[in-house]
Design brief:
Layout (H helix, E strand, L loop, with lengths): L1 E6 L2 H8 L2 H8 L4 E6 L12 E2 L9 E2 L1 H14 L4 E11 L2 H7 L4 E6 L4 E2 L1 H6 L3 E4 L9 H12 L9 H5 L18 E2 L2 E2 L9 H19 L1 H5 L1
The structure holds adenine.
The site of adenine has 12 residues, from strand 5.
């Protein structure tokens, strides 16, 4: 999988992309993540990528030219499955969407900024608009990081135990069961007895009952779906 992220704040994403599981996934050759500075694509001599909106509204709007130039340069090199724009008025990101996107070969994520981007880019170049939740961030970089992280960890081989991605909260519309590690007794705080029993079938049954109980209590909306 290859992910190209287009942003006016590349430094915000470079640390994230070069750290931990994403860094390891790239070293193993399982994913490639490229961060592009939108300012490298403007024809403006002051490297500006935004301008005042028509109609006299407040705020600045990202211009068509640098975005079109960057996306066109990438599309000239390879075909993309999706060209994503991160925006609070997009489709809500969730686990099924991450699952679908994780099967893609090439993806572009354009990070929104300022008041927004010239709507013609959304009409003509963007294939999918994604929001990570009903709140407004200062820019789309954190949203792009969230989407990239959720996709990459599902690529086979990226996390050690593939079983563990499948048993995540939300994969079956259930929250995960609690997990514990040594010591079995910490300051009198005890691990549930059943987990020490070595009885696999009973442990599985316990995990499912915990998942159901936690989902009913914390996210009853998931059970209705
Ligand atoms: N940009 C600003 N807020 C956002 C959000 N909630 N989701 C995606 N992109 C955004």
């Amino acid at each position: 999988m290859r992910i190209d992220i287009i942003t006016v704040l590349p430094e915000m994403l470079e640390g994230f992309v070069g750290t931990s599981i994403l860094a390891r996934a790239q070293k193993k050759g399982l994913v490639e993540i490229h961060v592009h500075n939108l300012r490298d694509y403007t024809t403006d001599k002051h490297r500006r990528v935004d301008d005042y909106p028509f109609g006299g509204f407040a705020g600045m709007v990202m211009q068509c030219q640098p975005i079109d130039a960057c996306i066109s340069a990438l599309k000239a090199e390879r075909d993309y499955d999706e060209i994503i724009f991160t925006t609070p008025d997009g489709e809500q990101f969730d686990q099924p969407m991450a699952n679908t996107l994780s099967m893609a070969k090439n993806i572009i994520i354009l990070c929104g900024h300022y008041k927004g981007i010239d709507y013609r880019i959304r009409e003509h170049l963007i294939t999918k608009e994604i929001s990570i939740g009903d709140y407004v961030l200062t820019g789309g970089e954190l949203a792009a990081a969230v989407i990239a992280d959720a996709m990459v960890r599902l690529v086979p081989g990226v996390i050690g135990d593939e079983q563990s991605a499948l048993s995540d909260s939300f994969q079956d519309n259930l929250l995960a069961a609690p997990v514990y590690t040594r010591p079995a007794d910490y300051k009198g705080w005890k691990v549930p007895e059943i987990l020490l029993s070595g009885h696999d079938a009973k442990i599985k049954e316990w995990e499912l009952s915990q998942s159901l109980e936690r989902t009913r209590r914390l996210r009853p909306d998931l059970l209705k779906e």
